[in-house]
Design brief:
The complex is a heterodimer of chains A (230) and B (294).
Chain A lengths: L2 E10 L2 E11 L4 E6 L5 H9 L6 E6 L2 E2 L5 H7 L1 E4 L11 H11 L4 H11 L16 H12 L6 E5 L7 H13 L5 E5 L3 H7 L2 E6 L2 E6 L2 H4 L2 H5 L3
Parallel strand pairs in A: 3-8, 3-9, 6-7, 7-8
Antiparallel strand pairs in A: 1-2, 1-4, 4-5, 9-10
Chain B lengths: L13 H33 L6 H15 L7 H10 L1 H11 L9 H23 L13 E4 L2 E4 H23 L1 H11 L1 H5 L5 H23 L9 H16 L4 H21 L4 H15 L5
Antiparallel strand pairs in B: 1-2
Helix pairs in contact in B: 1-6, 1-9, 1-10, 1-11, 2-3, 2-5, 2-9, 2-10, 3-9, 4-9, 6-7, 7-9, 10-11, 10-12, 11-12
Classes of the chains: A alpha/beta (230), B mainly alpha (294).
Chain lengths: 230, 294
């Protein structure tokens, strides 16, 4: 088991956001979390990523309890969080964005650039462009590429296709497909077409809980089943 | 006692007087820049209003004055000593005061760092006394430019501030550490998600900023007088520079420091009593045009 989340509770002040949430993920798996806005999906990813600490429960990664580790420590263990709101460093160039990830991941810049180019070849034309000038789709692909630097073990990807045009969703889809087997992924997604095609398993979230866990491909491909949780 | 240099007489007449005023304005701007850049970076990176910045400025000045005899009167060595001596002090302030205030209400930072300043000022009084001291111009010569005698020391201060600006620009744009700080300024959480301990780099920036404040204090001693309260006034002016230039905006701080230095000098030439007031008028206008969020 690569990741195990056991009955965690998470609160913002007195407001409990996650209640008794459990999930797990094996090496190489691509697991999706679906649910309505406000269901607690992003909070779940941020807690696993180390930005929030559960008040109760246990999170284990690669056999180690990581409840109290900070985000930078989790990243150094190989857990990378990919933001939903395309948060590249806008004042730095694309090359510099990659350079920071290479610096943190202890990887040579050329190797790091190659990794990003591999998943998004067109990025090589924009290396010296300020990242703030990229389109939403380009930013998303840069974020995905940047997260792959330094050999991560688990990607926590928050709504990768949100707000993107159909053509770019296709590109993001291909990247997620290409990464299967290379790295484990826990993906929050509301685009059911993407979930149906790519999910190995699906956790459905509602009001801070996980009421359903879909492991059967027939259920996952059944729109009616997934839509119950959206 | 005003920030305008001791020898600046605002009532000179004619074009030569104005050239002299502008030169003094640039000197003040240069000093303000060197002091303010650290404050701006601390404000921009940590969202902490650091009143203790005025203490390291004062310590830098006293360290220079006290160490001059030990270095055989070598002003350069004494300045270097003044800068180096604040490193452990800045580290202690960051480690035991500032670091506990990350993410807390800005009010706590104001109260805690102001307390550090007050304790430090009293310590200065205890060590050096409250009587103002002075250090003479280490160069003592002037160049005549457009018929006006301009002290070489002040021209060197202006050149040094330009050098500091260029070095900081190169540091933040060309080095990985500089880029980490730029990224952390924009989005600390996203920088952490890469696996970078941003606070470590912000601590470095804090110490760097403190060293620059000490440099400003040491360089300013021959122009002004040295007393335990010298930091209070420069602190307010530095905050004005930081606010007008934009929090954490390094180029903005540079432009604002020189602009406000000139505002002070030109106002002082025609209405000495209003020279510093005008700086805060400019700050108020800047806040109205572009309010800050803290």
């Amino acid at each position: 088991m690569l990741l195990s989340v056991e009955r965690i509770n998470v609160a913002y002040g007195h407001a409990r956001v996650l209640s008794d949430v459990s999930l797990n993920l094996d090496k190489g798996e691509r697991v999706f979390v679906v649910g309505r806005n406000g269901a607690g999906k992003t909070t779940l990813l941020k807690t696993i990523a180390g930005f929030l600490t559960p008040t109760e429960g246990k999170i284990s990664f690669a056999g180690e309890t990581v409840n109290t580790l900070r985000a930078e420590q989790m990243a150094n263990l190989g857990v990378r969080y990919v933001y939903q709101d395309k948060r590249v460093f806008t004042r730095l160039t694309v090359r510099e964005n990659i350079q920071l990830a290479a610096f943190a991941g202890n990887e040579k810049l050329d190797v790091a650039i190659d990794r990003v180019v591999q998943i998004y070849p067109k990025i090589s034309q924009f290396l010296d462009t300020k990242a703030g000038g990229l389109s939403g789709g380009q930013k998303q692909l840069l974020l995905l590429g940047r997260a792959l630097i330094g050999d991560p073990k688990l990607l926590l990807i928050d709504e990768p296709t949100e707000g993107l045009a159909a053509g770019i969703i296709e590109e993001v889809f291909k990247v997620l497909e290409m990464l299967k087997g290379q790295v484990s992924m826990l993906i929050v997604e509301q685009n059911l077409a993407v979930v149906r095609e790519l999910a190995d398993r699906v956790y459905a979230m509602k009001e801070g809980k996980i009421p359903a866990h879909l492991t059967d491909k027939t259920d996952i491909r059944d729109n009616a089943v997934l839509e119950r949780y959206l | 006692m005003g920030l305008l240099p001791r020898t600046h007489h605002g009532a000179e007449r004619g074009g030569e007087g104005m050239i002299s005023t502008i030169a003094y304005g640039l000197t003040i701007g240069a000093i303000l820049y060197i002091i303010s850049i650290g404050l701006s970076l601390t404000f921009g990176t940590m969202r902490i209003v650091n009143f203790a910045h005025a203490l390291v400025y004062t310590i830098g000045a006293y360290a220079l004055a006290s160490s001059l005899p030990f270095f055989g009167g070598s002003f350069v060595l004494a300045v270097i000593f003044g800068v180096v001596v604040v490193i452990p002090l800045a580290y202690l302030i960051e480690r035991f005061v500032i670091r506990r205030l990350y993410g807390q209400s800005i009010d706590y930072a104001i109260i805690a760092t102001y307390a550090v300043l007050l304790i430090g000022v009293d310590a200065c009084k205890w060590v050096w006394g409250a009587t103002p001291l002075s250090v003479s111009d280490p160069i003592g010569t002037a160049w005549t430019i457009l018929g006006v005698d301009l002290p070489v020391y002040r021209l060197i201060i202006i050149a040094l501030s330009l050098l500091v600006f260029v070095v900081l620009e190169l540091f933040f744009r060309r080095t990985v550490v500089g880029k980490v700080v730029v990224a952390g300024l924009e989005d600390k959480e996203a920088t952490r998600s890469l696996g970078i301990n941003v606070d470590k780099y912000f601590s470095f920036v804090f110490i760097l900023g403190s060293c620059l404040a000490a440099l400003g204090g040491a360089l300013y001693v021959p122009i002004t007088s040295l007393h335990p309260y010298m930091g209070f006034q420069v602190l307010l002016l530095s905050f004005a520079v930081v606010i007008v230039g934009g929090l954490g905006n390094m180029r903005g701080t540079f432009v604002a420091a020189f602009a406000l230095g000139l505002v002070m000098a030109v106002t002082g030439r025609f209405w000495g009593a209003a020279s510093e007031t005008m700086v805060f008028v400019v700050m108020a206008v800047a806040l109205i045009v572009k309010p800050i969020e803290v």
